[in-house]
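Task card 7
Instruction: Convert sequence to structure tokens.
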Amino acid sequence: MRQRPDSADAFNNLGMVLHRQGKSSEARRCFEQAVRRAPEGLVACCNLASVLAETGESAAAQLQWSHAFQLDPQWPMHFCRTAWHLATHPDARQRHGAEALRLARQACQATENRVTEYLEVQAAALAECGQFREAVEVACKAKERADTAKVRRIEACKQRYEQGKPWRARS
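Output:
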């Protein structure tokens, strides 16, 4: 950051590190700087929205989610595709549960937990992180919202989570 103090990416990356360390207020300031420096930066915008939502600032978070949708109306779907890969890939070297969970949570927060597929991805990411009780709860929410065609797969995933096993995609 010393070499490029005006870099939005540097502020966003520092914010992510601080957020992982549980330093939400410091992370927020970094994400705000990143968004100021690059208002078109989708990831920083989503990171700021997520921190705002986590700290109870719903109205401010919603403004950031709205801005993210203006930048790319399809971003939640892209985030969830990546999260699914990171949570369920059969090769352990390809999995990254914490990143999958971050992406899936952002998509779910932005859509107010109304999209079945995003809830399903969040459940898979939770299971990959070993949070099986939460994975079962989120899978149940997804199942309640799912159409008939998706219920079977969600139920199969939920049963694995109940057994303390994450879901794995087929290779």
